[in-house]
Design goal:
Blueprint: E1 11-23, E2 28-36, E3 51-57, E4 60-67, E5 73-76, E6 97-98, E7 101-104, E8 111-122, E9 128-129, E10 137-141, E11 147-149, E12 158-163, E13 177-182, E14 190-195, E15 198-203, E16 209-220, H1 224-232, E17 236-238, E18 245-247
Antiparallel strand pairs: 1-2, 1-16, 3-4, 3-7, 4-5, 6-13, 8-9, 8-12, 8-16, 10-13, 11-12, 14-15, 17-18
């Protein structure tokens, strides 16, 4: 009798897009954020289980997406970077701002999680700019607490991080980052003009915006090696007790 091939649920949890407006010349800064979701559901298990994931910023849930046993989606929609600046504070290139990002298992089964962070710039017309390096957008990653950067999957624009320990239902990972900073070199490209005894400084990138996209995924720990290959398309090593993983 032909053995029925098992398949594994794959839950691509959420896609978060945030941007901060950089107005160097006027020393005025503001932040704004937009949140969208997507999901890919591949349900094949008979056992009723719920998988869910939440993105936390500085200890607070920014947004979440949970899937019930009936594949119904429950969404909490929020905004990122709303607390980046203090009252009447102006955004300043070169200054480090607190930006602690972590992931919470909001489902009822243990999961492995990964985060994909993409950085980019846009001009005042909303077009992606390729002359400004994404490296000018500096997120300080923490990799001594269980998070690991997948170097082979990472580019200048995109960073892929895996949490190497299983996240139990209700638990939250340590922070994968702690600060956000825009390299002050962006403010060195300036043009000086003099007219009618008035000096004006025009910053080349004064009306550009930087964007950080965070994609958070969760995969069950049961048969994790195969589930991760099916869900994420990557090969990993998983411990016999399915409580930790390592990249190949």
């Amino acid at each position: 009798m032909k053995k029925k091939k098992k398949s594994f649920p794959k839950k691509s949890a959420l896609l978060l897009t945030a941007s901060a407006l950089l107005l160097i010349g006027s020393t005025v800064g503001s932040t704004r954020a937009a949140l969208t979701y997507y999901s890919e559901n591949y349900s094949a298990q008979i056992e009723m289980q719920n998988i869910g994931v939440s993105l936390l910023e500085n200890g607070n849930v920014v947004s979440s997406q949970d899937f019930t046993s009936k594949n119904q989606k429950e969404v909490t929609n929020g905004e990122l970077l709303t607390g980046l600046l203090g009252k009447d504070e102006k955004f300043a290139p070169g200054k480090k701002y607190k930006e602690e990002l972590s992931v919470q298992n909001s489902g009822n089964i243990d999961t492995f999680v990964r985060v994909i962070l993409t950085k980019s710039w846009q001009d005042k017309e909303g077009k992606k700019n390729t002359t400004l390096s994404p490296d000018l957008i500096e997120l300080n990653f923490l990799t001594a607490n269980g998070w690991v950067v997948a170097d082979q999957q990472t580019t200048d624009e995109r960073t892929v991080l895996y949490y190497t320990k299983a996240v139990k239902a209700g638990d939250t990972t340590p922070a994968l980052s702690d600060t956000l900073r825009i390299d002050p070199k962006i403010a060195t490209d300036v043009e000086k003009t003099v007219k009618d005894n008035t000096i004006t400084y025009t910053y080349k990138y004064g009306d550009y915006t930087f964007h950080i996209d965070a994609e958070v995924d969760a995969v069950q720990t049961h048969n994790a090696k195969d589930a991760i290959k099916s869900a994420w398309g990557v090969d990993v090593n998983v411990s016999d007790d399915e409580t930790s993983l390592s990249l190949q």
